[in-house]
Amino acid sequence: MPSSPTLPHSAQDIAGAHILVVDDRPDELQLLIEILRASRCRISVAFDGAQAYNRAQLIAPDLILMDVRMPRMDGFTACRLLAATPATQAIPILILTAVDKLDDRIHGLELGAMDYIVKPFEPAEVIARIRNHLKKIIRTRLDELLPDLPDGPDAALVRAAAAVLVRDLRKAPTVEELARLVGTHEKRLSRAFRDNLGQTAGEYIRDTRLKTARRFLLNSSMTISDIAEEIGFSTAGNFATAFRERFGMTPSDWRRQQGRVEEVNSAVEQQSDA
């Protein structure tokens, strides 16, 4: 296994992504951490499948790198549980293991893993695969956060800017920085947002943060403070105030209401099946 990671220039595209790394071997865990840190990812760690399953529900990572052979609960069992749990089933799992038999690779993919990487691995390949899966996640989130836009250069600017934002809302750039990142100037980007969305770029950033907060409230066990930090609010109080102004209730009340809706829907489904 390589002792020092050599990473592609494209690694910068995954900066800010939150990766849950699951491995029980300290040396291999340390190498993965070094690779991801070099790409400026945020990293959480679990040492077995059971811990990974619990942490994934608590922190809602963007992607999971999962070993197979681990104590308490192996990676295959964790994949099965994560894929069967509504709060975690959309998180892509990349199995990264020395278990390289064809039957094992097929088994892992059938359980819900999106990719299977055999150790020893090349760091650049791991980053490239992570990047490809994160691009799919960004497209899915953009579909949720952006209306259909007409073809044209200004609409393309809005889509490109939105893609930058959803990668890491904790550190959303200023409108001036955002314009530079998508190859234009602040005045044109602002006009593109107003013409295509009826919002300023700043209003869109705030709205995107609050809509993303709803996803965390619904699909994770994160605390209100952790969600506030994750989406870029300075305090939980500021977040709660902005959420209430936008949706008419506090984050905690919204989460409780959604829980009641889920209970009602589940009861209806059970009656229909009876």
Automatic annotation (TrEMBL):
Pfam families: HTH_18 (PF12833), Response_reg (PF00072). The keyword Ubl conjugation does not apply. The modification 4-aspartylphosphate is found at D67. InterPro entries: CheY-like_superfamily, Homeodomain-like_sf, HTH_AraC, HTH_AraC-typ_CS, Sig_transdc_resp-reg_receiver, Tscrpt_reg_AraC-type_HTH, WalR-like. Residues 18-134 form the Response regulatory domain. Gene3D superfamilies: 3.40.50.2300, Homeodomain-like. SMART domains: HTH_ARAC, REC. SUPFAM superfamilies: CheY-like (SSF52172), Homeodomain-like (SSF46689). It comes from the Bacteria. Residues 159-257 form the HTH araC/xylS-type domain. Keywords: DNA-binding, Phosphoprotein, Transcription, Transcription regulation, Two-component regulatory system. PANTHER family: REGULATOR OF RPOS (PTHR48111), TWO-COMPONENT RESPONSE REGULATOR ORR33 (PTHR48111:SF1). This is Response regulator.
